[in-house]
Amino acid sequence: xxxxxxxxxxxxxxxxxxxxxxxxxxxxxxxxxxxxxxxxxxxxxxxxxxxxxxxxxxxxxxxxxxxxxxxxxxxxxxxxxxxxxxxxxxxxxxxxxxxxxxxxxxxxxxxxxxxxxxxxxxxxxxxxxxxxxxxxxxxxxxxxxxxxxxxxxxxxxxxxxxxxxxxxxxxxxxxxxxxxxxxxxxxxxxxxxxxxxxxxxxxxxxxxxxxxxxxxxxxxxxxxxxxxxxxxxxxxxxxxxxxxxxxxxxxxxxxxxxxxxxxxxxxxxxxxxxxxxx
Amino acid sequence: xxxxxxxxxxxxxxxxxxxxxxxxxxxxxxxxxxxxxxxxxxxxxxxxxxxxxxxxxxxxxxxxxxxxxxxxxxxxxxxxxxxxxxxxxxxxxxxxxxxxxxxxxxxxxxxxxxxxxxxxxxxxxxxxxxxxxxxxxxxxxxxxxxxxxxxxxxxxxxxxxxxxxxxxxxxxxxxxxxxxxxxxxxxxxxxxxxxxxxxxxxxxxxxxxxxxxxxxxxxxxxxxxxxxxxxxxxxxxxxxxxxxxxxxxxxxxxxxxxxxxxxxxxxxxxxxxxxxxxxxxxxxxx
Lengths: 278, 286
Ligand SMILES: Nc1nc2c(ncn2[C@@H]2O[C@H](COP(=O)(O)OP(=O)(O)OP(=O)(O)O)[C@@H](O)[C@H]2O)c(=O)[nH]1
Ligand SMILES: Nc1nc2c(ncn2[C@@H]2O[C@H](COP(=O)(O)OP(=O)(O)OP(=O)(O)O)[C@@H](O)[C@H]2O)c(=O)[nH]1
Ligand SMILES: [Mg+2]
Ligand SMILES: [Mg+2]
Prior knowledge:
The structure holds 2 protein chains of 2 kinds. By secondary structure, chain A is of the alpha/beta class. Chain A is built from 11 helices and 8 strands. In chain A, strands 3-2-4-1-5-6-7-8 form an 8-stranded mixed β-sheet, with helices on both faces. In chain A, helix 2 (26-40) crosses helix 3 (51-67), helix 3 runs antiparallel to helix 11 (269-277) and helix 9 runs parallel beside helix 10 (239-248). The two termini of chain A are 26 Å apart. By secondary structure, chain B is an alpha/beta fold. Helix content of chain B is 49%, strand content 14%. Chain B is built from 11 helices and 8 strands. Chain B has helices at 4-11, 21-37, 42-58, 67-83, 106-119, 136-146, 160-170, 189-202, 219-230, 248-256, 277-285, and strands at residues 94-100, 124-128, 151-152, 176-180, 206-212, 234-238, 260-264, 272-274. Chain B starts with a helix and ends with a helix. The structure holds guanosine-5'-triphosphate (2 copies) and magnesium ion (2 copies).
């Protein structure tokens, strides 16, 4: 039984809608469904297997391909010179500051020493927020006064880590939009000054199609090595994970699943793929 | 005013006086893609395209109007009908309860609103009822100090009900009171219970839902939960200075049977604009 494009059309259309309804961006859905249509057309279907089942199996495989296996942070730290410098980037309100605190707690739990750089010197209450988190997690935070140069703060954080033989520097930055050239230039300067080993881009699971645009822009402006997808506890199927990874081809390091320090899980593709297509 | 995809599709209808089914199909397909990319709810996009296609094929263009203009008018009318009424802003005594998802922009918008009412000559006070987020009171106080607006909060206290009661008493001399609350989402039952209580305690005259312009398909379900809990009567879209189109706001408006009150267009206190349906729709389609 050779599958024609017509045979799989209905099945594909149904899956297309499911992906769209679960926040997979249109451009990612187009590309993925297009690939599946191309791969399946002209292939042989085993007698007894339904077309729906074949298409579904192929989709799961394609999604797993896109998502990859995640990013092993502790593995990275173990194989690199200390201090390992990690810079967190992203647009406003996605959960960067909270993620820095969660990652600090996670690393501390795994036996690493951490210092936090309070790199948001712009937003009201940012220093206070980061300091409170750092105190609760029990790690040192380096901060300057409100309005200071963020590059200087993060440079100091790295120097502090060197002087005190700290394993990891986690650098927070102010939220900013990719269409603000001056702010993206500032971020590029921060990167040049602090020379991070890892640039971690943070976005939220409930973001729609804009997640594609901004992931692309941030990757183009300062580069991205790994992604943290926050707010995955918001009743969402995590389609944004597919959109982002499909767009920039970088792995997801953690999923944020709540507002507590323990609400962070190392990424594995199975949960998302089964939720989406299950 | 239209995105290139829609412009090309409309071109195919230009100069025609008779409805061309193929051209209409193509236009509707392009419209669907534009709306999906703008984060309009999938089911809503499907329903909209059905009604637009039906009207385009069944309704006669008015005398003297080309097919292209006629179809464009239908698309526009269908979208405008979704926007709901442009919500009125009352310029008198009122208590506004702010609600929304984590990180949507409530605290920043609370300060912007205080500035708006202040400029209209109304004595305004703000209550920080966010007892959870570290630095929440500092953040709101800092913003309010910039514009000389009284900001009531009780750092260290974890009872939001008490803060609202005390804040209302403390700020009794003000005409407008705005209450900032912590972020919460549909699955956090204890937090939904909290905002139900705060709504009762505050005797809020308005309950506004703050949503991020980039919110995707979750907009409908989240808006629905907030509406079930406290009867939302206004929607504010923040971060419209980014590149997101705000399609989720259409769902928020239809779920809450309310309208869009204000748009947040930047990080500073002055970055608040009244909602303009025409501008919103052309951005949605662009
Ligand atoms: N439900 C949920 N909320 C989260 C998660 N991560 C962060 N938040 C909440 O999202 C809100 C914003 O978090 P922040 O850490 O301040 O976000 P940010 O990116 O640093 O924000 P800016 O610095 O203003 O750009 C806070 O209320 C956090 O508690 C998550 O995984 N799940
Ligand atoms: N560019 C831009 N940034 C905004 C806008 N509104 C809010 N922000 C930013 O978005 C981030 C989150 O804003 P907050 O006011 O802290 O959001 P919130 O809803 O109070 O967050 P939680 O209390 O944690 O739920 C901050 O960095 C704000 O400066 C806007 O209209 N444009
Ligand atoms: Mg932050
Ligand atoms: Mg807030």
